[in-house]
Amino acid sequence: MTFTKKAGLVGAIGCALVAGQATAADDVFINPEWANSAWYVGGNVGQSRANIDDVRLIRSLTANGAALTNFTADEKDVGYKLYVGKQLNQYFAVEAGLFDLGKFGFKSTTTQNGTLNGEAGFRGANLDLVAQVPLSQRFSVFGRAGMNYAKATTRFNGNRLFAVTNPSPSERKLNAKAGFGLEYKFSEALALRGEVERYRVNDAVGNRGDVDLFSVGLVYKIGRPAARPVAAPVEPPPPAVVPTVAPAAAQPPVEPAKPVPTSEKTTFSAEALFAFDSAVLRPAGKASLDELLGKLQGMDTDVMITVGHTDSIGSNAYNEKLSLRRAASVKTYLVSKGVDAARVYTEGKGETQPVADNKTAEGRAKNRRVTVEVVGMRR
């Protein structure tokens, strides 16, 4: 397959994924459970490099007293792969795929007008175990190890074919493969991968070597987002009971009701306030905070505490900083609406105070939250 066809194939896949992502972008950012979906698909394209056994070929060509006058090897081509994966848990997945590593060849001439040209191509299927370690909400590194079942198709031509035993051999072999790479999430549904892989292969003429594939590609998570968490409503206080005055007799003046100490706590889904991996308040998040301020009318506020929380994806240090930035963003907005900055405090708890199991998508959604606690006197 030519470079144009291969690039076009992966490009078409990329366009389809991006189009699907664009239509569902709002839902993805509000419900980032797609990244924890059990299934995903992807495609990579890049440059492949093979090791051709030059020494053995030259030895065959110079048999019978002939001298080699020219030998050139083409050890690079365009390779690609398509794959489907199943996420076993946060750190491990199994991937199965199809690959085409391209074609590699050589051209040679000898004295006595001898020529021999050859070409070998490799394609097949693979099954890998993938281990992934998150570095942050967007970046993660991964490594893979598995097996590949490749078909090697080799063809020779020229007037020195006696140097090889079969002009068109083919062979299928099961060999090992391994690799490593870096993944960057555009969103919880779509990610970019860059990776390096080594395929162990047989070339159908008795040689065993390696083909390396340096590639980039797109990964698309398949699944349904979890139901959107809704901020817990703030219960209004019971109405004050005012004693009735008997019409016939004078009554002593009724003292106004004394302020009642109260503490009210509201929990917001982080995705309802912010976009993925962001501490910038969304318009919907501002509307939610405006609604909270409306319910606090009539309260003399002593202290407001905003606390950010995350799930366990990403490092502890990154999650703590992200939760603190989100809590500070909520404070900034509340102050812009007239709340005294000296009465608002912020905390970032990161992933240290989960309210649900981080092993499930539903649990992680509950753990990504921002709480606002208000302490004051309600009249």
TrEMBL record:
Record key words, sorted: Cell outer membrane, Ion transport, Membrane, Porin, Signal, Transmembrane, Transmembrane beta strand, Transport
Chief location: membrane
Cross-referenced Pfam families: OmpA, OmpA_membrane
Domain OmpA-like: 261-378
Membrane topology: Multi-pass membrane protein
Keyword check for Transmembrane: yes
Subcellular locations according to the entry: Cell outer membrane
Stretch forming the signal peptide: 1-24
Family: Belongs to the outer membrane OOP (TC 1.B.6) superfamily.
Name by which UniProt lists this protein: OmpA family protein
